[in-house]
Amino acid sequence: MSGGVDSAVAAARAVAAGHDVVGVHLALSRTRDAMRSGSRGCCSREDASDAARAADLLGIPYYVWDLSEEFTRDVVDDFVAAYAAGETPNPCLRCNEKIKFAAVLDKALALGFDAVCTGHYARLDPSVPRLRRSADADKDQSYVLAVLRADQLRHAMFPIGDTPKPQIREEAARLGLRVAGKPDSHDICFIPTGDTQGFLREQLGSRPGDVVDSASGEVLGTHDGVHGFTVGQRKGLGIDRPAADGRPRYVLGIEPVNGTVRVGPDSALDVTSISARTPVWASGVAPEAPFGCVAQVRAHGGTAPAEVTPSDDGVTVVLSEPLRGVAPGQAVAFYRPCEDGDVVLGSATVAATH
Hints:
The record marks 120, 330 as: Interaction with tRNA. One of its GO terms (biological process) is tRNA wobble position uridine thiolation. Keywords: ATP-binding, Cytoplasm, Disulfide bond, Nucleotide-binding, RNA-binding, Transferase, tRNA processing, tRNA-binding. Belongs to the MnmA/TRMU family. Its EC number is 2.8.1.13. This protein is α+β, with helices and mostly antiparallel strands. Among the domains are: 5-119 and 159-181, HUPs (Rossmann fold), CATH 3.40.50; 206-264, Adenine nucleotide alpha hydrolases-like domains (SH3 type barrels). The chain is built from 8 helices and 16 strands. The chain has a 6-stranded antiparallel barrel. A 4-stranded mixed sheet has the order 8-7-10-9, with no helix packed on it. A two-stranded parallel sheet has the order 1-2. β1, α2 and β2 (62-66) form a beta-alpha-beta unit. α1 runs parallel beside α2 (45-58), α1 packs across α7 and α3 runs antiparallel to α4 (91-110). The longest helix has 20 residues, at 91-110. The radius of gyration is 21 Å and the shape is globular.
């Protein structure tokens, strides 16, 4: 129970379904004594209090589990290391993989519980198990759950995935939950100020390098570290003159070893194939032959028909339509289109684009 409306209603539905429910709030931040600011973050003292009040109203036991050490190691340190390596990580995806459905699930199973129930917007066919997109396309979170293995999905519950968000808020209000109107959290929970670049500067310091035109090789400016950039970025490039054609430049590539950031026109952002590492298959079995699917490269949007070819060291994803702004470190998720909600086939981490 994060302290938000989604997890509160998920708990309420689990109670109503007759399950023996225990509310657990995860203490993930080492600076959680600070109050949250607006709709940023989800690990503050205020959020813990909101979760406790919701559990009390539902009449269920409530505990706080301190997983800040695991979270720092597996999510925060991973996030910093990825940016230092010129990649663009997704910490929410990593938190689901390493914390909520690894550390939490392992502890829950050891204590005799059957499942971890969360307020994610996704649907799960428990008998298979099979993960689907949620009924609310705008809130669908199946992409950040596509890292889960079959054995983890067998011990997962997503009670609100069949309901649009406005109706979840209405249900919370009917139940008397004070979080019914609470703003959604956004940005990165361990950076409650929203200043990601400032956080990375604190962690990584200054690592000067050049901003270079990808076509001519001309040095256009300098920077304090590749961690200040991501593929597809347009603003804050530190370039003091426009391109010859007057069009904006975008980050096309990042070379962390020599500190070079390559920039160019938006047309050069088109990606037609992806090499990806460490695939995870929802069925628990790696495909033996190429297969068609819909590939998704961002939590919301960035989809295209694709053919995926598995290999010993990863997968190759050939896109039928080009996608823009695909960066190493992101996840690429694979879906089988279905009328009643696309089914997640698996995912992998983008290693390179072409």
